[in-house]
Amino acid sequence: MIGRDPHYLKHRQRLRKRFQKAGFIGFADYEVVELLMTLAIPRSDVKEPAKALTAKFGSLRGILDARAEEISSVDGIGPVTPVALQIIKAAATLYLQQSAEGRDSLANPDRLAEFWRMRIGSLQDEVFEVAYLDTGYRLLRDGVENLEQGTIDRAAVYPRRVVEAALKRGAAAIVLAHNHPNGRVVPSEHDKTLTRAVVLAAETVQLRVLDHLVVSANETFSFRKAGLL
């Protein structure tokens, strides 16, 4: 009938009302994905593409960790959805970072490990990042920096650069983190050598290296927990 709203608009309204009433309680994963997709695709029915994404990647986390080209390979997914999902994940990661800034102590590596798994664990290239902490081991404002982005094999990081960046920010301690795109988080000999070099450089200016974390999408290796720091 001319002028009649498409059927999916009422369905979207119901989803939004459910969310406004109770958040994502009672939502299936595909319904969460569907609701997110409605923000990027306002004039199409996205229920079936959302189901297809969930079937392929298993969960919302699996979808957000997937590469853009993997998302695009799913039937019914156009060019907008992969970018929209990347924006959503990046915004959530930034929220976690800013929520931690100036708050509780991050001396326990588990808290930063979860953050970095989400931030860099699923990347296809190896990146090296540093968190800058104050004397109470609280994250400084804008306290996470990407220092190097390398190839899929390794990132080249220089201890002097790490220490200089920490001094410029007035940090009292740092946490190092990098990802292993192959999914295996056991540190290489290069990782161990680099860590020792950073520790030695940091000691000359009374800067503490609190931990070095190696992450993948699902796992984390802590140098401190393993007794290597």
Keywords for this entry:
229 residues; DNA polymerase, domain 1; 5-stranded mixed sheet; 9 helices; 5 strands; 48% helix
Order of strands, main sheet, comes to 2-1-3-4-5
Number of strands: 5
Question: What is the CATH domain class of the largest domain?
Answer: Alpha Beta
- Return the domain count: 2
β content, as a range? 15-25%
Q: How far do the termini sit from each other? A: 70 Å
What's the CATH topology label of the largest domain?
Cytidine Deaminase, domain 2
- Series of H and E elements: HHHHHHHEEHEHEE
- Mean pLDDT figure: 84
The CATH superfamily name of the largest domain is Cytidine Deaminase, domain 2
- Report the total helices: 9
What does this protein structure show overall?
The protein is α+β, with helices and mostly antiparallel strands and 229 residues long. It folds into 2 domains: 7-92, DNA polymerase, domain 1; 105-222, Cytidine Deaminase, domain 2. Helix content is 48%, strand content 16%. It is built from 9 helices and 5 strands. A 5-stranded mixed sheet has the order 2-1-3-4-5, sandwiched between helices. Helix 2 (29-40) crosses helix 3. The longest helix has 21 residues, at 80-100. The protein is elongated. The relative contact order is 0.10.
Write a concise synopsis of the structure shown.
This protein is an alpha+beta fold and 229 residues long. It has nine helices and five strands. The chain folds into two domains: 7-92, Orthogonal Bundle (DNA polymerase, domain 1); 105-222, Cytidine Deaminase, domain 2 (3-Layer(aba) Sandwich), CATH 3.40.140.
